[in-house]
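My current task is to audit a protein record that another person submitted. I need someone to confirm that the token line plausibly describes how this chain folds. Take the sequence as given and treat only the tokens as open to question. This is what I was given:
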Amino acid sequence: MSYRDSHSLYSRYYPSYTATKDHRLASHLRTSTLYGVPQSSVLGSIATYRSRPSESVSFTPTPDVNEVYPGLFVGDAVAAKDKAFLKRMGINYVLNTAEGKRYTQVDTDHMYYRDCPGLRYKGFQLMDMPSTDISRYFHIAANFIDDGLSRGGRVLVHCFMGVSRSATCALAFLMIKRGMTFTEAVALVRSRRDIHPNEGFVRQLQDLDRELRVCRVR
């Protein structure tokens, strides 16, 4: 898992409702005891309070997406699953680089978008780990993205947080189809979005860079 995944996952998707409630309960208990309220009354009110839903707490995640190259967007799971958002953005190609139902994967597939006319979908079942062989998808991803852009489409490449798996595939596209070096591709994408491919993905992109340089010399 990338640095940003491990440090942002819970703060962004799972706010600490219980901690907030317990803080309020502790404050209520101290105040009630200070003013002489019987302990039995305090405990009774706490039981009632715990049984109520968190009516004052609400959290609606918003899509996190950036256009990193004309027509090419890198984003997160929230953006990918919000079909109304995709329609507003004119996205008609979606590449899910984290397809699946495991932790940090995104459970969309062709059927998820069956009510989105004209939208083309492709999914890779990848985990964000240095040991994952993402390089076998480099050319598949590049061809899919290139096909979308060449048809005048708008392409979303996403994973769970939009910083490692999706970013890696977007970089591979720029290197394979737009002739950029690894350094140039990273500089371009990072000027538009905060990305952090894990170290294993970086090594695989560097290997791709060397392979492409050899091919260009021939």
Summary: Residues 1-55 have pLDDT under 50 and may be disordered.
